[in-house]
Amino acid sequence: METRADPNRRKHQVQASERTLAILRAVLDHPGNTVKQLRPHIAGDRPSDQSLRDHLELLVAGGWVRRTFLNQIVVGPTLVAGAKAISDFQMLLARLRQASVDGMTTQELAAETGLTPRAVSAAMTIGIEFDCITPVGDDRFRLNADGLLLPPCTVSEEDLVTVLKDFSSVSGHDAALVRLSQADGLILSHLQPAPDGTSLLVDIGADAAHATASGQAALSWVDDAQRHRYLQTHGMRAFTKRTPTTIEALAPQLIREPGRIYTAEGQYCAEGACLAVLVRNGPRTDDRIVLTTSVRLDQLERARDRLKSDLRDAAVALSNLIDGPLPPVST
């Protein structure tokens, strides 16, 4: 299976992830189902039909599963050889979630789980294959947050609003959370106006993902095929003369870089700019939660540096609230 280490080689519409592993587990436990029959057997929140088909395409290509002439999904040769390692890795993954940011070694995992070092090593190979963990030298393994299904967000609305209010009070600007949905586009929530009661964010809509910093932050962390499908669904119409209206024009702005602050100047709103930072990311589209703010163009130059600093501080506070037990991952 191809991995993110060589992104130019990826030929499929999804990246391997903990979700792919959950689908594989369902095939192992319930072989012979069609795609529609398989979906209820997938642990955790279930993928859409399109996402499930994309993941299965990845698994078929790797020999993990195969389709029969009746379009049933059955165990493939790669899965037959790796079934025990998959079960072992899912147990080890639960232990790694509790570990410190430094991760754990093969010997440490073996001592805590009762598995042999050889079994741990085989399981870790599965984890790397499915992009859930990263080897970090000295036989140590660390969670790869980008490949994990994130825990449910249980933070209270009051806590979220408090962070946004604090940001607005300190920065003097509005704030909002934006979630990217494959089906519904950009969904604005928890809008906190600026102290003077104004906001340029109120008009962010589903068709504006390519024209806002919020959309750029979220779309930069999906692969090319998902991005193409999203933009085809939600359109590429121009909002101002500065709005990119082709995928080719948008692509240079979608730079995948942890902690990057995205700025869309005059692309969605002619008189204003939108700044945003990705707060939460995972292999589910709806895992992408972005913190965003706006500023008038005539104020942008003098406010940019301070806004970026305030935005980062608020993003850290939100991330700590939202992700809870998931340990941070060094980049």
TrEMBL record:
SUPFAM superfamilies: GAF domain-like (SSF55781). One of its GO terms (molecular function) is DNA binding. One of its GO terms (biological process) is negative regulation of DNA-templated transcription. Gene3D superfamilies: 3.30.450.40. Pfam families: IclR_C. Coiled coil: none annotated. Residues 142-324 form the IclR-ED domain. It comes from the Bacteria. PANTHER family: HELIX-TURN-HELIX TRANSCRIPTIONAL REGULATOR, ICLR FAMILY (PTHR30136), HTH-TYPE TRANSCRIPTIONAL REPRESSOR ALLR (PTHR30136:SF24). This is IclR-ED domain-containing protein. It comes from Glycomyces luteolus.
